[in-house]
Amino acid sequence: MGLQIVQGRQKMPRRTLVYGTPGVGKSTFAAGATKPLFIPVEDGIDDLNVDRVGKIQSYDELIQVLRDVATDEHDYQTLVLDSLSALETLLHAKVCQKYDVDSIESAGGGYGKGYVEALNDFISILKALEYIRTQKQMNIVLIAHDTVELDPSPSTNSFQKYYPRLHKRARQKITEWCDEVLFAYFQVFTATEDQGFSKKVTKAKGSQRMLLCDGARGWAEAKNRLGMPEQVEMSWQEYQKFIDGVESNG
User: Fold this and answer.
1) Do the beta carbons of residue 174 and residue 17 sit within 8 Å?
2) Which of 120, 229, 230, 236 is the most buried if burial means most Cβ atoms within 10 Å?
3) What pTM value is reported for the model?
């Protein structure tokens, strides 16, 4: 039949992970996407004017919701899972219940077997999300909390770095799957005041919500496939400019 050649960039919905400090506005960022539907796994979106399903209490409930999103007729264009960190807690509880243990460290006899089972559940969820993305043409937005860990850099001394708050195995799989991994944080603006007698004091003068889009400097995990700069203002509208810029060149 011969080669089937497809040229140029292809327009596909985005797979986005946004994580960051509490109260920075991760859910509000996702609410700015086109026609979003939220799947809440924790509290925190009651004040947002968005459509949502009931709060997820188990893995089986989530899988059923994803099936419904994939098969029902609707006009939603973005699916928001809020949050992965809370979802991981549910998955760990599922594994602990299966083995009748109090800690996932002990599940399946230990040696990380419990984490492997939880990872397999995450992989099943990612497969369902990928199906929804391709078949329903929906953006997928994953929200997570942040954590600080020592980064064992092979080229420099170890240093503290922000990561999505997930077990390392799940985190690696999810960040690989996503097109963009964006770290949300407050950029604080300061000014130095002269208080006399050669004494100067630096004070915070305000802050702005920002997205770190490139982790080249190493202080937080971040990446993008849109040619975005190191950081941009935290709003979906700003993010959309780069999405449209790539798609318009397709």
Assistant:
1) yes
2) 236
3) 0.88
Closest CA to 81 of 36, 21, 137, 135: 36
DSSP conformational letter for 105 = G
- Asked if residue 214 lies in contact with residue 230, where contact means CB atoms within 8 angstroms, the answer is yes
Per-domain residue ranges of the chain: 15-247
Query: What are the distances in angstroms from CA 9 to CA 20, 139, 244?
Result: 30, 17, 12
Q: Identify whether the C-beta of residue 185 lies closer than 8 Å to the C-beta of residue 210.
A: yes
Dump pLDDT digits (tens) for 163-215. Answer: 999 999 999 999 999 999 999 999 876 555 665 566 665 555 667 999 999 99
| Amino acid occupying residue 185 | Y
Name the DSSP class of 218: S
Half-sphere exposure of 180 (CA within 13 A, CB side): 29
Backbone angles phi, psi at 239, to 5 degrees: -60, -40
Which pair of structure tokens corresponds to residue 61? Answer: 């409930």
Q: At what angle do helices 113-135 and 168-177 cross, to 10 degrees?
A: 20
Structure tokens belonging to residue 164: 């999505």
Q: Are the CB atoms for 227 and 213 separated by under 8 Å? A: no
CA distance linking residue 155 with residue 198, whole number of Å: 40
Give the helix/strand (H/E) hosting 221: none
Q: What angle do CA 70, 90, 130 make, to 5 degrees?
A: 25
Alpha-carbon distance 209 to 185, whole Å?
Answer: 6
Which architecture does CATH list for 15-247?
A: 3-Layer(aba) Sandwich (3.40)
- Strand pairing partners for 144? 19
CA distance 113 to 111: 6
